[in-house]
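Input set for joint prediction.
Command: fold jointly, output tokens.
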Amino acid sequence: MIEKLKASVTKEILLLIRDKTGLAVLFIMPMVLIFVMTLIQDSAFRSMNENGIPVVFVNEDMDSLGFSIQRGLQDNPLCKINNGDPSIIYTSEQANQAVSKGEFILGIIVPANATKSIQNHVKKMVENVLNPESVANDNASEIVEIKILIDPVANKSFVNSIVSNIREFISELKMQLMFETFSNEMSQFLPSDTEKPDNNYKQTQIVKFQEVYATNKAEEIKPNAVQHNVPAWSVFAVFFIVLPLTAGIIKEKGEGSIFRIYTMPTPYALVLTGKILVYVVICLIQFILMFCVGLFLLPLLGLPILNLGESIAGIFIVCIASAFAATGFGVMVGTLARTEPQGAIMGSLSVLLLSALGGIWVPSYIMPDLMQKISAFSPLNWGLAGFYELFLRNGGPADVILPSLKLFIFFVLTLSIAIFYNKYKRSS
Amino acid sequence: MNGLNLVIEQNEIFGLLGPNGAGKTTTISMLCGLIQPSSGEVLINGENLHHHAEKLKAIIGIVPQDIALYPTLTARENLNFFGNMYGIHGKKLKEVREEWLEKLGLTDAANRQVGTYSGGMKRRVNLIAGILHRPKILFLDEPTVGVDVHSRTVIIEHLKEINKTGTTILYTSHHLQEAENFCTHIAIMDYGNIIMKGTPAELLANFKGGNTLEHLFLDLTDRNLRDS
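tokens >
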């Protein structure tokens, strides 16, 4: 039996070696994919950080609030105000047109007399508290409306995160202005200079935020484009082994060699085992090559080095489980498809679909509830979850057992479907 | 198939002749275990093929009508794989492989990919792949179709040699003259049924319409064009 298995493995290796295009698809394409996708995502992020988002700023206030916001935006590396030249003055109408044409992603308009309105509002509040009888019963307070213009073409989630940043920043400035006005107003009602309130807004900042990436391990792994992209695209690329595997199985059917095999005193499952072993090893080599891109090639281009975490055993478990799942899926598609074009379409579309559902293109946590539930059934999602556990949460073998087990069950299921379908086709 | 009942004795060269679509390939496919008959059974040495598939497949060899080889592998690589699948390995496999490559004039081309071979060369490798393990029963489904006279003569000569060493042969062909000379027994079939069977001499003895197998064949099967 071992001799037969060896012969089957040798035959598969020889068939692969002779197929130069197939080899390129198996080894070069995945590396190029990782390289390009990581570089694009990192450069997009870096470009945003380095160049800033084009923002048009209109200061109709020309007072404390307007100038503070303008200074704050200029100091913020996320923003590039008025094409880098704040001396250019835009009217609100011009700003509106510029944003609608896509010249700027965001526009911020601070209305005229915004500072005065805030000051008046605070003044009335203080007077109302300290001397309620002297103040006319005027509850009508002026609302300061800072307008944020948004380019409708800009990515919504991206704009939302920027807008929330800017809103938080403007709110803080408003609070600061109100605090200063409040301090000044209070000082007029206090008898001596020594009892005047300390006009130091920063001292009121008693709540601070610290961002820490949650992990159970002592060493923290910082998430970045490399940590996210290398495992995601590796799982995706490994599943694309479905294409050459499917083509190989369909060729065997078309060339007739499979019919000779059926008449031989060798179970088809053994011939299939030889094929599976070869493709599992290829998947493992693919993983090694793609991780090497993250470890050695991407850092040469200034990207962060891929941090593999602390568990080599965990990585091996997820890699081999993903490899078996991808191979089982390929065997199933190759068995179900009748022609090579049919297999190529079935294979590529199903992998694209499973990858989209599995959170390779868009993180599954931002998907609608229903899609998140469906996503939990994608083998690519299980592979990705396993790698994220290792590469982002610094987990160990115990943390990847569940996703790996799901991948092995998927392999057994797809292989069983292939074998039973094959038996059914031969007996019908 | 329609109530096919066929007994082939040991060491016969049994020719199964019939027009396209008569059921020759289907018969061979059932006899070698490739497809299962919807009813009835295939007995080899009194044992049911379906129940003892592994054991009986080891003594069967098949040379299919289509070239059943890997075109990107060389002849040696193809024969190594199929030989191993039949259960012969190592030195023994090498000896038998080289012996047949030599006999069929393929030694010099044996390290070339089969896809680069001529039709006749492919047929010869296709034949070797089915006989490497010295089968007791050999199924030949039109083994000489599309082959030039030289290759055909070599193939038939070696098949006769194999038969002499104790291999029973079941053979289908459209070459009626070749069948008449090669086979010890012949059955003419059509529409999934055996119409007539016997030795070539017996078949022709009772036929008044001519003195060749071709005349008999045309007489038994209608002369209309057939498509499979």
